[in-house]
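Quick entry between incubations.
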Amino acid sequence: MASCIALVAKENYPLYIKTVISPSQSVLSEQNLKYWYLIHTCLDVIDEKLRKVDNKDLYLGLLYLIEDYRIYGYVTNTKIKIFIVIESSNQQFHDTEIKIMFKKLHAGYISTINNPFCDIGKTIVSKKFEELVKTMLQKVTNPIMNSSQTAILTSNNSQQSLTSTNSGQGTGEYTI
Amino acid sequence: MSKQTGKYGVPDPRKISYELFTLTYGSFVAQIIQDYEDIDEVNKQLDIIGHNMGVRMIEDFLARNPQIGRCSDLRETAEVLSKQAFKMFLGIQPQVTNWNSTFDEFSLIIDPNPLTEFVEFPDDGKYDNLCYSQIICGAIRGALEMVQLDVECNLNTEQHKGDSTTTEIRIKYKGIIQDAVPIGED
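Done. Structure below.
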């Protein structure tokens, strides 16, 4: 199950990408082109969302569903966009979980920027950031908790769905 | 910088935040590297800057702690350095370890080092010899020089070198500085 995490700069040029299938490729390699294409289509969605509502919410939610991929977006106050692309099968993610992941990525990006030897505006080269992204990708591709949760729910024939309309649900609680 | 509030709990406007200090030092070092380009020269400059700071800091330190008297040996100096001086200026308390057999040398282990909080060196090996916290060594040397103590102060290990994640400063006692007649006077 493929997935990817990418960062796009304010001027909409690519800053960073990490995918599961080709984890050690350069930012603009061929394998990553597919993902950049998907993200490029989402940039328009982001522009729309940012223009329409005045809200200060950084998390933009599920942006786009395209050919089996779900793309979640997050934009910082400095217009740095973070994308999480997940190839969806039957695994669905809680909105809150994705939000937590975005917050962690944002914090990781800030720590990377604070490095005096980091060139802002260039491709992100930082071991700490790579490790953070790797753990995020692992969580996204092998969420053992989530798959067991969906199994329990579907077997219990619950009417509840694990989409973003759920609010205030911890990962361990289910009201049926 | 150990307390953010001055008298009566009012925030002291001269104190700054920890992150601002770290970021300032970081961009300062990055700029020096850009100016000098040679890493050894950069280390030397950081040492000189630290030295200039140290000779001034010692006055401030002794003024605020009038109860500190003369140290009878290097061990007392190490104690005062770690427990009071570092606490006052950097808000941390390094460990004093690794005494050698004649008690002439010791190490200060700074963990965590506030100067290197966000720093990550790029992999291209250009910065392998950079002593990022050299300014602390220079400051220690300058301060102790003003109290007639001649020491040699070097960085042993730092976060980016090897696997260790702490900063170790090696301080070696060289002698007592005798009062010399200043140049130009007879």
